[in-house]
Amino acid sequence: MTDVNQPATAGIAGLVQAPLGRRAMMRRMAALPVASAVTGSGIVGFATSAAAATGMDSRLRAENLRFAISGGRILDGYFTWPRGKADLDVIVVLHGENGLDGAAEETARRYASSGYFAVAPDLGKNFAGLDRESQIAEMVKLAPKLKRLPSGNNNVRIVSAA
What we know:
six-stranded mixed sheet; alpha/beta; 43% helix
């Protein structure tokens, strides 16, 4: 797992690949705007390229992350939330049959624009080998553990992007 104290060039790959616990995610959320101002184009280019690719509102943060749930369980997915907001309800956006796609990410961004911390988990990656019904059942079991998300307020709801 990388740390925010690493040089920007060494930490960029780790931002999207290393599993994050709650404290690490909070440190990164706080450190990225500061690091962008200090390091210049290294992290700024990373952050703005993701925004440009998604057509995202500049009032939102959106990233593909790996979040450490508990007991070594990692949740891969698309996480988005309003910048500078806290005490947010968490919305889990379940994608359609085609996997985590632009439609699921757009649904998550719409919820984030409305003031929610939205997570669109990649069910196929997180629950490989299971059929769709079983993937959804496993996500429903894990959803309460998302109460620990930074900026969350212990309320978790599940919606469908389809």
